[in-house]
Design a protein that fits this description.
- With 138 residues, this protein is mainly alpha-helical.
- The protein folds into 2 domains: 2-64, no CATH class; 67-136.
- 74% of the residues lie in helices and 0% in strands.
- It is built from 9 helices and no strands.
- Helix 1 packs across helix 2, helix 3 (25-36) runs parallel beside helix 5 (52-64) and helix 6 runs antiparallel to helix 7.
- The longest helix has 17 residues, at 67-83.
- The radius of gyration is 21 Å and the shape is elongated.
Amino acid sequence: MRIFIEAIDIVVWDAIENGPYIPMKKDDDAKNIITSALSIDEFFRISQCLSAKEMWDTLQVTHEGTSDVKRSRKHTLIREYELFRMQNGESISDFQKRFTHLINHLVDLGRKFEKEELNLKVLQCLDRSWQANSGKNR
């Protein structure tokens, strides 16, 4: 949603992130953009908020959790990353989707990766049958 709002007007995103300022028109624009992107249930969750910042903060805590929840989730995902392996009979495509999904969640929580680290991790995670087959193709 942040990228969507910034694309419409970066000043609107600033009003959401930092709160309303003079002129208040941008806060009203931001509130309209946020509400237009929500389901009816989400709308009711933020309908009593007075500013775009309050709306955003409410949605952020609802969907991302508090900092303690984020920290716990990050630790859980890091452990999942450490133990990540290709499942028996899993296709390369499905393996890649699971891996990318995990990495995207970790990046969203602030974990940074070098390309080399990710490439090495993928190679280490492949099951033996795939590794043996790849050797025959050389």
